[in-house]
Write a structure and sequence with these properties.
162 residues; 80% helix
Length: 162
């Protein structure tokens, strides 16, 4: 099974390479590292860029929902509710800025599901990769702020309880 999956992955890489050169896309390994595009091997397709775009869109969507939960925590996990109280204005602004970037990418990804266009798929992949590289440090900072806010809450609880 592993050998078969490896050969399928190698075929996908071979199919991707001419498209990468044609549209000046990131290396397969870079996209795979950031967006786990090797999942593409689970689907037989003639439209490899569409499958890659869907994998990219999954990650964009996941982080969009994460930030959305922070911005609008109705029915959100309790740890988010507790952490939000301890975020500063800089953190909140960072969350809003990055949320808007992810919303833009999400809308573009959805629009590509309406009409297939290889060039548009490639442009989305390039744009999403670049924007992800730009916002990744911010996302890490947001996560660190949430972690610190949660630790502050736990420290207060411990001191209160004894």
């Amino acid at each position: 099974m592993l050998i078969m999956k490896e050969s399928v992955l190698n075929e996908i890489k071979k199919s991707y390479e001419p498209l990468r050169r044609k549209y000046k896309l990131p290396e397969f390994s870079e996209l795979n590292k950031e967006f786990e595009i090797e999942k593409t091997q689970e689907h037989e397709t003639e439209f490899i860029l569409r499958e890659i775009r869907k994998d990219v869109g999954e990650k964009v969507g996941a982080f969009l929902r994460f930030l959305e939960t922070i911005l609008n925590p109705v029915m959100g996990p309790i740890f988010i509710l507790n952490s939000i109280k301890n975020l500063n204005n800089k953190d909140k602004d960072l969350i809003k800025e990055n949320y808007e970037i992810l919303v833009d990418l999400e809308i573009k990804a959805i629009s590509l599901d309406v009409d297939y266009n290889e060039k548009a798929e490639a442009e989305f992949i390039k744009e999403a990769y670049k924007k992800w590289q730009d916002i990744k440090p911010d996302i890490k900072e947001i996560i660190d702020s949430l972690r610190k806010a949660q630790e502050t809450k736990e420290d207060k609880r411990k001191s209160y309880l004894g």
